[in-house]
Write a structure and sequence with these properties.
Layout: H1 2-22, H2 27-63, H3 66-76
């Protein structure tokens, strides 16, 4: 009688262990879900930062004219009436004594092609 009860308990334990490790909702599936959740949390954090940046920009554009003016100046090149526009062009340093060869092996004289 004791041996039958022991055998029955061992079979029950083996069945529960099988379900725990390899069954539906087992350890492997839980690990895969944890990996998926961690990846999604990382993506959500990046999207949350982007949304915060966009919300701050929208609030800035709604709240004042400084942001609109800065955008108009930088992206559209607009100036106020009475202002003088100056364009600063940086010059290239003098060419070296020996011209460098380009990809075909010909000398590039002064950057003209």
């Amino acid at each position: 009688m004791f041996r039958i009860l022991l055998l029955l308990l061992l079979l029950l334990l083996a069945g529960l262990q099988y379900k725990l490790w390899w069954g539906d909702g087992g350890r492997a599936e839980v690990d895969a879900l944890r990996t998926t959740v961690a990846r999604q949390d990382k993506e959500n954090a990046g999207l949350r930062r982007r949304n915060d940046d966009l919300a701050a920009e929208v609030a800035d554009l709604k709240g004042g004219t400084a942001a609109v003016e800065e955008r108009a100046r930088s992206e559209l090149g607009m100036i106020k009436p009475g202002e003088t526009y100056y364009r600063v062009v940086e010059t290239k340093p003098p060419a070296e004594a020996r011209p460098q060869a380009d990809e075909e092996g010909t000398a590039d004289a002064g950057g003209a092609r």
